[in-house]
Write a structure and sequence with these properties.
226 residues, alpha+beta, 9% strand
Amino acid sequence: MKRKQIQYEKALILRRSGKSIKKIAKLLGVSVSIVSVWSREVELTEEQREKLKRRKVRIRHLRKLAKQSHLEKISRVKRLFEDAHAEIKPLTAKELFLTGLSLYWAEGFKSVKEGRLGFCNSDPRMVKFMIKWFKKTLKIKKEDFILRTEFNEAHKDREEEIKSFWSKLTGISLSQFEKPFYHRSVWLRDYPNREAYFGILRIRVRKSSELLNKMKGWISGLSEAA
């Protein structure tokens, strides 16, 4: 017996048992229109029609509740974000120093092999914060920054776009950018929003070996300050 014939007979059995056309289509893996044609001669009892009607009303009600719950969640998340955002006040000089120091401890260059200050991250907000921190707290001059972009070679065609993004974000001239580094790992799938990918920015500071040694001391002191 052909598969379609088997599906047809199952559809009739399910329809006579009072199942909805959409439910039958889902169970059999066929379109709603096909099930509708197959079962158009089947007469439902008054009880079955009433049951389907109540089910439809219940589903509508559940969907309405789900939508309302979703909107309430969005509103709650937005409110939490806004309240938390408002809790952060302008930082004092000491608070700014400790905040930047903590970020440097986590993401900055600390090895003696580096020989100078450096920081690396992919989060534009963190990069922008650290550039400001270097300039405001450590008095680093804009011309003493050396930047390098790092990104997957699949985005090699966007090299200038990526460099321009980081240059505009940091306010540092493209002339202070070194040749990019390409990561050659193979991505197993294509990611959406390709244009939103800007890789990693590596920041170095010229003639900062003494500051690097001080940084190690600050980090050591911070580790014992809690």
